[in-house]
UniProtKB/TrEMBL annotation:
This is 7-methyl-GTP pyrophosphatase. It comes from the Bacteria. The lineage of its organism: Bacteria, Pseudomonadati, Pseudomonadota, Gammaproteobacteria, Pseudomonadales. The active site is at D69. It is found in: Cytoplasm. InterPro entries: ITPase-like_fam, Maf-like.
Length: 192
């Protein structure tokens, strides 16, 4: 098997990838993550996942490089990482009682052959009705300022959900393992 490289500095993605019990290394790619003019969210996450993997191909020849990117979409609006308490409050108030769809782009690049598989895995969260005091308590407890949509599904953020819908719950956290296994198998990686 070619060495596996995760093109991400995300501790959440590393924790997910560890579930597959495959040896891997990780490094953060240096790319411009700005959305192109009028670029649909689906195309944005696929492009960024591919570019993250491709950014490390020259420095890591003969690797299987995993790139991933995620955005949360509320109606037509893309919700990024809030970075601040105030912005997280705004995002969660807007999401209250609504559906938020998480689009997770995934790419697996064989830097030896140049073959790159790219996909997007959606996952929808139906949010509970939230008031400002509940949102503020949640944000103080978990501080999810580095998470698209302002919550951590793998933690206390699940208390904000009414229901969820999707084929792969790991896509909600940022690395769709079911689809990744398909891609790894296509590259000849042996998994149990």
């Amino acid at each position: 098997m070619l060495p596996l490289l995760l093109a991400s500095s995300s501790p959440y993605r590393r924790e997910l990838l560890e579930r597959l019990r495959l040896p891997f290394s990780w490094t953060s790619p240096d790319i411009d993550e700005q959305r192109l003019d009028e670029e649909p969210a689906l195309e944005l996450v696929k492009r960024l996942a591919r570019e993250k993997a491709q950014a490390l191909a020259t420095s890591h020849p003969d690797h299987l490089i995993i790139g991933s990117d995620q955005v949360a979409v509320l109606g037509e609006q893309i919700l990024g990482k809030p970075h601040t308490f105030e912005r997280a409050c705004e995002q969660l108030l807007a999401a209250s009682g609504n559906h938020v769809t998480f689009l997770t782009g995934l790419a697996l690049l064989n830097s030896s052959t140049g073959h790159c598989q790219v996909d997007c895995v959606p996952f929808t969260v139906n949010m509970r009705e939230l008031d400002l005091p509940r949102i503020e308590r949640y944000l103080r407890a978990e501080q999810p300022y580095d998470c698209a949509g302002s919550f951590k599904a793998e933690g206390l953020g699940v208390s904000l959900f009414q229901s969820t819908h999707g084929v792969d719950a790991t896509s909600l956290i940022g690395l769709p393992l079911i689809r990744l296994v398909d891609m790894l198998l296509a590259e000849g990686v042996s998994l149990p």
